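Hi V.,

You were right to ask for the full record rather than a summary. Here it is.
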Amino acid sequence: MTPSAAGARPRQRPEPEVLYLTTTGRRTGLPREIEIWFTRRDDCYYLVAETGERAQWVRNLCAEPRVRWRIGARTYAGRARVVDRVREATLATTVRTRSWAKYGWGDGLIVELRAAKARRVRG
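Predicted structure:
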């Protein structure tokens, strides 16, 4: 092993800029997809709705929290929820800070996406 390889850190790929969120239309029942900025913390993804609860995608996920999202070639299914910025002040501050660092913006209603746990089928 060469000296430079011995101390080298594995290169991390930069996080993608956007994810594609699919909600279920609250009136039509049809899938609705948007492209949106996101940040990640632990196993959850966070979105910020600039127009808050007026955003159509937020209204959709409040009516039906089961959502899908895609980042690059990976697709996830799970649940979405609005983060309560008063009761979850530490989480809200962390998400806003990450959003500001990544995009230079972070004002609005925070939504958390949590992937469903994969179930193992026993045979």
